[in-house]
Structure formats: structure tokens, C-alpha cells
């Protein structure tokens, strides 16, 4: 802090945005140096929700640590669990039954829609339109109900288990998902009418928060943030896991490089996820939902890395095993952490109102960044 | 027919009979003062509950529904809570200015109630420069916002106040010019004259397209002047937490809150008076039968109906649009609204000289 | 490019690389002092083009620390894992943030959690932990009577 003051010129305003601030969506703390309304520097200070999950996992068994990751990116907790389960399965070379694979993908895509819907509402709220937030929650609620029925939880599902999923889907699952598909198809058009084509919204998003193709790669951005800059980085396409290589869906690429491009990527991704769900919902194969595994899992000595595409980007799990029942070291490569590092670069020279819109377009989830 | 003007007249007569004229006038002033304060409080309560219900309707939720019938007493309960809260003054604040600011916001809003005609012959003060008075006094409110932002010793407040200053000073121009177009057509600044001139039709209908343009510009400009979304940059919840009133709490906060809603009421009342005929019922040319039927609806209902319709429109704006950025906001005013309203006023002048309006 | 092809290319680029067996991707160990020239080469070489540093972390092996870098190429989609052993008592390594900007944040994280000092890093301060934190939480011998619960 003392150093900052020394480099600050007279007339500059140093403002703390957060840890409690309406638009940081959590406890993110940004120290902003401004000249009038124009931002000169953004400096994130993290750690307000740091729980050292990586250290915690070192004392948990290979079954247990999966569920801690629900608390990282709580909006795509199912996909986080999926990444961890994949890594354990890779180490033990467990074959996942076909039914479990389909259920996993279905749940992943439902989670992705739920996360994107919430992001849409929150972004609209950041740029000052409060109503979309409530509309978004209405649809998210429908997904949460589906989740609750099958997994027993609404936010941190903890439905994954090494070798499949914990229990079979609820008898109502297919019926409910069909109803949701019908509902959401009309609602997503409503979203476009309400926000996407709004003149003020476009003026606030277009040409703001430019992140070039090279910078997106250099900053390690992934997910919709990078795809808005034209980077092909969808793990589901590039390194397909489960049954993604058998599915028909597009990787959404926008080349606008601005906040609006990132916005469009997520809006189109929702439609893609919906189409994946439509392809799968009537084709869930019969059979086992959980492969037979040993009671105590012991990963062989070695290093294992698996990555999945969460709603925010590439989530990597790096396990170093010494052959014991607990991981020797775990590193979670969280998408939000890398995406956040690009914020300073994007925000320089912009107005403070834009910073909020930019943060919204990055879709930051703070526990995911702090871990 | 029984009307509000009868009541005022009979009170005035009674007072004049009982006391000497000076004392009678003084008593009247006290009564008017009490009425204004009462109206102020009631309006605040009604508008807050209205805003919450309107927003709830638009956001597919129920809104307040626990206190009183259908939640109608919710804002009363909130006011009580705010009254009982401690009014904090931050340590580094300029105490005098900090405490003065909400009072000035309140006084400016109250003064504006004076020239408004609430019903036929029911007006506190029919001043002959009514329109000028309104545009002059409404500019005072920016001082209170600047004062609040400066005295809070908070960077968010300061930014909000500075934004608000830039915003109100620029949008005052468009609002003034669109008001002027009515004044040109009527030839008087007196509000009662303006209402009377709309006996055979409201200006928005009589004045062709130029008047519709002025009306739209007026609506946009007053939305900006009252710091309502999409022009709520002075508060800008997601950017500046609460802008100029970040540091205010308790009753001092409530005064700002109240002043905002009363300002909304006043600008909508002025809009209704200038463009929609004020208390004048819907009259169409010389359709005497139709006009006569319309006359049966009391004038106060006409005035409040129109005003609340405009208030609803402004609330509708708030719950639909995203917020503009500060430079876009100023661009909108200086590059679009101001040139358009200047050109528009030329058209209106031409129309008034040639007598092309109905 | 397959792992074998990559291996021959990389050996041609930097003969002193030591390769490790096992793992999905090509694992290799490099001396800390040779990191920067090697990194610059694999970033700029047209046929390798490792432009995406997607994971940067450290592992405490009790006797030494190992920096682990995961590189991949957005053009050719191949991935390598680069490791570098550091002295546990005085861990020092050059920063990569001039080549990959993402390294700046990841290195700050490793700095506070493992105590690795990144030379020539533009802003090496605590990112997650408070400025006055003592000790390096992710090291194996870290003890904290208050915040750590032993199972």
C-alpha cells in the first residue's frame, strides 16, 4: 500500500472496490487507481475466502477430496467434481459405465445452463438493469429443482463418485428435463429480446474490455472469456472426455474480443448445451450407473492431470500420488484465477462503470479464484 | 358541485370572518405548510409502495405483502425503522454541510409543490412566472447532492456527486427548452393559464409532432434530472455502491429518498400540466356531449391520474433499461437531445406565429 | 506431434534435458538456470509454438521443491510438462512472466504458498495471504496450531 501511494501522482484517486461491494459478487478486493473517472491501474487483492483447499485435500482420501471441490466454483460444482472423478479414474483406469457417462454429461450441461443463466442476470444487474436478475433466477430454479430431486442438493451436488455417479436418476428426471427444455427454449429468446439487442446494453458492452487473441492466450484465459477473443479452447471439443466426441454441438467462437463478444459466446453456449441435453435425454442407456471399485482407493505412484470445461473455462486437476490413500499434492487449475489476471490489462484507460461490466463479462466466481 | 376549491374558499371565508386579514393569512400559511408536509410524507409512502409493487410485477415476484392489507403499510413500517435508526455522521465528514444537505434536498422539493395546480382552482400559489419558478428551484437540488457528496469525505460519494453535477446541469437545458415550447404556444408562464389554454384539447394532441417530440425530450430529461435509472449515475448502485448518499443512514437517508420520490412526483405533475392538460378533463374540440361527460370526473382525479401514469412510465424505464455510462450520458444530451430540442423550438415558434396548431 | 516426435525435437533444441518415464504427456526436467533460454526457444520455435502455459505449480518433496510447468500449443495441440528441481532452503528460479503473462499471478501464488523466489518478477508480493504471513502453508512441514485441524 505504501508503495502504491508513492507511485500515485497528485490528483489520482485510489479506491478500494470490495471486499464488500455490490458488483464484485463475493469478496473480491480490487484497488483501483483512477484519474477522474478513468482507470489507470487495477490491482486484485485476493484471499478473503481462501481456505487452502489444496492443503485440505492432502489429508482426504481419493473419494473424499472430490466433494471439497464443490465449494470452489459453487456455480458449476458438478463439473468440478467431474474433473476430479476423471482424474481418479485415469489413475485407477476405471471404466465408467455408459449410463453413468450419459448422466454425467446431462448433469454437466444442466449445470452449465444454470451457471450461465445466473451470470446473465448478474451481468445485466452490473450494467444497471435489475429485472433480468429475477427472470434468470426463475429458470435457474427449475434446474435446481431437477438437481434436488436426483442429487438431493441444489447447489453443491456431490453427485459424482469415482467410477460413475452415486445413485441412479430419479424416475421423474426425464419428464422434468423435457419440461425444462420446453420452458427454456422460449425464455432464452426472451433473454435476447430483453438484453442482447438493447441499445444501451450494446453501447455499454461493445468495444469495452478489449482482450486480443494473443493476450488471451498469454494470460492463460480459457472458456468463454478466451473464445470471445477467437481462441479455440473448448476442452469438450479438443480433448473430449466421456461421450462428448459422439455428440453434435458447436464450439462457439466470437472474434469481437470485447465484452459483448464474451456475452454472445455464453448466450450461444446455452443453446448448444440445450441441444446436447435434447440429444441425450431420450437416449440414456440402461445398465449400471456405478462401476465396481475397491472400498479404499489407492492411486499408483505418479502424476495425473485431467481437465474439463466448466462454465468458466478450463478446470484442471493435477494429482501427485505416492501410492498412498491420500494425494501427495493436488493442484487445481481454476479458470477464474487466470481470467482475473487479464482484468488489469483490459481495464486500463476505461471508465469505472466499464470495469463493472468487464468483471461481469469475465464471470468471476470468487471461491474459484481464491480456492 | 362539491369540489376542493369550495373547501378552500369556505375555510378562507371562515378565517377572514373570525380574524383580521393579516392573522387570517398567517393562519392560512400555517395550514398550507402543514398540508404540504403531510402531502410530502403521504406521497413518499405511496410512491415507495408503488415503486415496489411495480418492480415486483415486472420482476415476476410478489413484492411486500406482509404489513397491512396487501403490504400497503410496508413503507410506513420502513419509515418508522429509519426514524429509529441512529443517524451516523462519519468522522472525517464536514458535519455542518453533511447534515444540511438532506434538508436542502427536502426544501427544494417542497418549494416546488407551490405553483402546481392539483385541481380546478386548487393551487397554493398561482405565481405569474410559475414555469420559470419551477425550473429555477428544481436546479437547487443539485446543490444538495454536491454538498452531500463533498461533505461525506468518501470517494464514492464524491464521484457520484460530481457525476450528478455534470448530469443535472446538462439535462436542465433540454428540459428547459421543451418546457419553453409550451410557453411559446400559450404565451404565458402562469400555470393556470397553461391549463386553461388546453380546454379544447391537450397540447400533446394540439401541437402536432413537434409537441410530441418535446414531450418525449421532457420525459427523458426529467428522468435524468431526478437521477432515476437509466440515468441514475449519481447513485449507480453497482459501480459506486450508493453514490452521493453512501454515508447517510437513518432519517437523513430517508430525507434524500423522500426528496427523490417527491421530485419524481413534481416533474410528472409538471409534465402532466404542460402537455397533458393538468386537471383539465379530456376535451376534444367542440364535441360538447363528450366534453360534458368528461367534466363529470372530478378535476383532482384527472390531475392525479395523469401524474401517476407518468410516474408509472418513469418507473417502467427504471426497471427495464440498463444504465448509461457517464460519457454516453453527456453525449446523449449534448449531441442529440439539445440540437433536436433547439430545432424543435424553432418549429414550435413557427407554428405559434402562423397559428397552425389547433 | 506425438510424444516421440516431440522428444526428438526438444532434444535437438536442448540436449541436456532429462526425460522422465510415465504420464500422459512428455515429462522433462531442466536445470533452473537453463529455464529461461529453453522457455524462450519453445515459445518462439515455429514447429513447437508452446504459447499456452495452462498450469504452473510447485510440489514439496521434503528434500527439494519441484516447479511444474504445463505447456501446450494452441496451434498444434501438443502438451509437455516441464519440471525443475529447486533447493529447499533457498529456492530461486527465473520468472516466466515476460514470456507468458499468466505466470505473474501463478508465480505470486507459488511464492507465498511455497516460498519460491522468482527472480526479476515485476511485483512479487503476497496475493492471497495477508502481507504479514509467516511460513509457507503448502510446504509439508508447515504447522499452524490455530488454522489447521489434524484428522
Structure description:
The complex is a heterotrimer of chains A (371), B (358) and C (151). With 371 residues, chain A is of the alpha+beta class. Chain A is 48% helix and 12% strand. Chain A has a single domain, classed as Cytochrome-c3 Hydrogenase, chain B (Orthogonal Bundle). Chain A has helices at residues 2-7, 53-57, 65-68, 77-92, 98-126, 131-151, 173-196, 199-205, 213-218, 224-227, 235-238, 259-281, 335-341, 343-347, 352-362, 366-370, and strands at 13-17, 29-35, 38-45, 160-161, 164-165, 302-309, 314-321, 329-333. In chain A, the strands form three sheets. Chain A has a three-stranded antiparallel sheet with strand order 1-2-3. A three-stranded antiparallel sheet of chain A has the order 6-7-8. In chain A, strand 6 and strand 7 (314-321) form a beta hairpin. In chain A, helix 7 packs antiparallel against helix 12 (259-281). Chain B has 358 residues and is mainly alpha-helical. Chain B folds into two domains: 1-35, no CATH class; 43-61 and 70-354, no CATH class. Chain B has a two-stranded antiparallel sheet. In chain B, helix 3 (74-84) crosses helix 12, helix 7 runs parallel beside helix 15 and helix 10 runs antiparallel to helix 15. Chain C contains three helices and seven strands, in the order αββαββββαβ. Chain C is of the alpha/beta class and 151 residues long. Chain C is globular. Chains in contact: A-B, A-C. At the A-C interface, helix 9, strand 6, strand 7, strand 8 and helix 13 of A face strand 3 and helix 3 of C.
Amino acid at each position: 500500500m505504501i508503495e502504491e501511494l508513492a507511485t500515485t501522482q497528485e490528483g489520482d484517486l485510489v479506491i478500494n472496490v470490495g471486499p464488500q461491494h455490490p458488483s464484485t459478487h463475493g469478496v473480491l478486493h480490487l484497488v483501483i487507481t483512477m484519474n477522474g473517472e478513468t482507470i489507470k491501474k487495477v490491482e486484485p487483492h485476493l484471499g478473503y475466502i481462501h481456505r487452502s483447499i489444496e492443503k485440505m485435500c492432502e489429508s482426504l482420501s481419493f473419494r473424499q477430496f472430490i466433494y471439497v471441490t464443490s465449494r470452489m466454483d459453487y456455480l458449476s460444482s458438478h463439473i468440478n467434481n467431474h474433473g476430479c472423478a476423471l482424474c481418479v479414474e485415469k489413475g485407477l483406469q476405471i471404466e465408467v459405465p455408459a449410463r453413468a457417462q450419459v448422466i454425467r454429461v446431462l448433469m454437466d450441461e444442466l449445470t452449465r445452463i444454470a451457471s450461465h443463466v445466473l451470470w446473465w442476470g448478474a451481468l445485466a444487474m452490473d450494467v444497471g438493469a435489475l429485472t433480468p436478475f429475477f427472470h434468470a433466477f426463475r429458470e435457474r430454479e427449475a434446474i435446481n429443482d431437477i438437481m434436488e430431486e436426483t442429487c438431493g442438493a441444489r447447489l453443491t451436488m456431490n453427485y459424482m463418485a469415482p467410477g460413475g455417479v452415486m445413485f441412479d436418476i430419479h424416475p421423474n428426471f426425464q419428464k422434468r428435463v423435457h419440461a425444462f427444455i420446453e420452458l427454456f427454449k422460449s425464455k432464452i429468446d426472451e433473454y435476447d429480446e430483453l438484453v442482447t439487442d438493447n441499445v444501451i446494453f450494446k453501447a455499454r458492452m461493445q468495444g469495452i474490455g478489449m482482450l486480443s487473441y494473443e493476450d488471451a492466450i498469454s494470460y492463460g484465459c480459457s472458456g468463454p472469456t478466451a473464445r470471445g477473443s477467437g481462441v479455440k479452447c473448448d476442452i469438450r471439443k479438443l480433448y473430449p472426455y466421456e461421450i462428448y466426441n459422439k455428440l453434435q454441438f458447436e464450439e462457439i467462437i466470437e472474434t469481437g474480443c470485447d465484452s459483448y463478444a464474451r456475452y454472445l459466446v455464453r448466450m450461444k453456449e446455452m443453446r448448444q448445451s440445450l441441444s446436447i441435453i435434447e440429444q441425450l435425454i431420450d437416449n440414456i442407456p440402461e445398465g449400471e450407473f456405478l462401476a465396481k471399485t475397491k472400498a479404499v482407493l489407492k492411486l499408483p505412484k505418479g502424476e495425473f492431470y485431467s481437465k474439463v470445461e466448466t462454465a468458466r473455462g478450463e478446470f484442471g486437476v493435477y494429482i501427485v500420488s505416492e501410492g498412498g490413500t491420500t494425494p501427495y499434492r493436488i493442484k487445481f487449475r481454476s479458470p477464474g484465477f487466470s481470467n482475473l489476471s487479464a482484468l488489469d490489462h483490459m481495464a486500463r484507460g476505461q471508465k469505472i462503470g466499464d470495469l463493472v461490466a468487464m468483471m461481469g463479462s469475465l464471470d468471476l466466481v470468487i471461491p474459484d479464484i481464491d480456492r | 358541485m362539491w369540489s376542493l376549491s369550495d373547501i378552500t374558499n369556505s375555510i378562507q371565508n371562515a378565517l377572514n370572518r373570525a380574524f383580521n386579514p393579516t392573522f387570517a393569512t398567517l393562519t392560512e400559511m400555517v395550514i398550507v405548510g402543514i398540508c404540504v408536509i403531510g402531502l410530502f410524507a403521504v406521497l413518499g409512502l405511496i410512491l415507495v409502495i408503488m415503486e415496489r409493487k411495480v418492480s415486483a410485477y415486472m420482476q415476476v415476484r410478489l413484492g411486500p405483502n406482509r404489513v397491512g392489507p396487501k403490504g400497503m403499510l410496508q413503507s410506513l413500517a420502513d419509515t418508522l425503522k429509519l426514524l429509529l435508526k441512529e443517524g451516523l455522521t462519519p468522522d472525517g465528514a464536514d458535519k455542518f454541510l453533511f447534515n444540511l444537505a438532506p434538508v436542502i434536498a427536502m426544501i427544494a422539493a417542497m418549494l416546488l409543490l407551490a405553483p402546481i395546480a392539483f385541481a380546478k382552482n386548487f393551487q397554493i400559489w398561482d405565481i405569474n412566472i410559475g414555469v420559470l419558478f419551477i425550473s429555477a428551484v428544481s436546479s437547487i437540488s443539485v446543490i444538495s447532492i454536491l454538498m452531500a457528496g463533498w461533505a461525506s469525505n468518501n470517494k464514492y460519494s464524491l464521484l457520484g456527486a460530481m457525476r450528478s453535477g455534470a448530469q443535472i446541469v446538462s439535462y436542465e437545458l433540454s428540459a428547459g427548452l421543451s418546457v419553453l415550447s409550451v410557453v411559446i404556444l400559450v404565451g404565458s408562464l402562469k400555470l393556470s393559464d397553461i391549463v386553461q389554454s388546453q380546454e379544447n384539447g391537450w397540447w400533446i394532441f394540439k401541437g402536432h409532432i413537434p409537441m410530441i417530440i418535446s414531450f418525449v425530450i421532457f420525459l427523458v430529461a426529467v428522468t435524468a434530472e431526478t437521477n432515476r435509472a437509466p440515468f441514475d449515475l449519481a447513485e449507480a448502485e453497482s459501480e459506486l455502491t450508493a453514490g452521493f448518499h453512501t454515508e447517510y443512514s437513518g432519517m437523513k437517508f430517508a430525507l434524500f429518498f423522500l426528496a427523490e420520490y417527491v421530485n419524481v412526483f413534481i416533474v410528472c405533475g409538471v409534465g402532466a400540466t404542460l402537455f397533458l392538460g393538468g386537471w383539465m378533463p379530456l376535451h376534444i374540440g367542440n364535441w360538447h356531449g363528450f366534453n360534458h361527460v368528461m367534466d363529470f370526473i372530478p378535476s383532482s382525479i384527472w390531475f392525479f391520474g395523469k401524474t401517476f401514469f407518468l410516474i408509472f412510465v418513469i418507473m417502467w424505464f427504471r426497471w427495464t433499461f440498463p444504465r448509461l455510462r457517464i460519457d454516453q450520458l453527456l453525449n446523449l444530451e449534448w449531441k442529440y437531445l439539445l440540437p433536436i430540442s433547439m430545432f424543435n423550438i424553432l418549429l414550435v415558434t413557427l407554428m405559434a406565429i402562423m397559428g397552425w396548431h389547433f | 506431434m506425438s510424444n516421440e516426435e516431440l522428444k526428438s525435437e526438444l532434444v535437438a533444441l536442448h540436449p541436456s534435458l532429462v526425460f522422465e518415464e510415465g504420464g500422459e504427456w512428455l515429462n522433462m526436467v531442466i536445470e533452473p538456470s537453463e529455464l529461461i533460454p529453453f522457455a524462450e526457444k519453445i515459445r518462439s520455435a515455429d514447429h513447437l509454438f508452446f504459447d499456452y502455459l495452462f498450469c504452473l505449480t510447485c510440489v514439496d518433496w521434503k528434500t527439494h521443491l519441484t516447479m511444474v510447468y504445463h505447456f501446450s500449443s494452441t496451434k498444434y495441440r501438443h502438451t509437455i510438462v516441464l519440471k525443475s528441481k529447486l533447493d529447499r532452503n533457498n529456492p530461486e528460479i527465473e520468472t516466466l512472466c515476460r514470456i507468458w503473462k499468466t505466470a505473474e499471478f501463478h508465480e505470486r501464488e507459488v511464492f507465498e504458498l511455497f516460498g519460491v523466489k522468482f527472480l526479476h518478477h515485476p511485483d512479487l508480493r503476497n496475493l492471497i495471504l495477508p502481507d504479514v504471513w509467516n511460513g509457507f502453508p503448502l510446504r509439508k512441514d508447515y504447522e499452524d496450531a490455530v488454522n489447521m485441524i489434524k484428522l
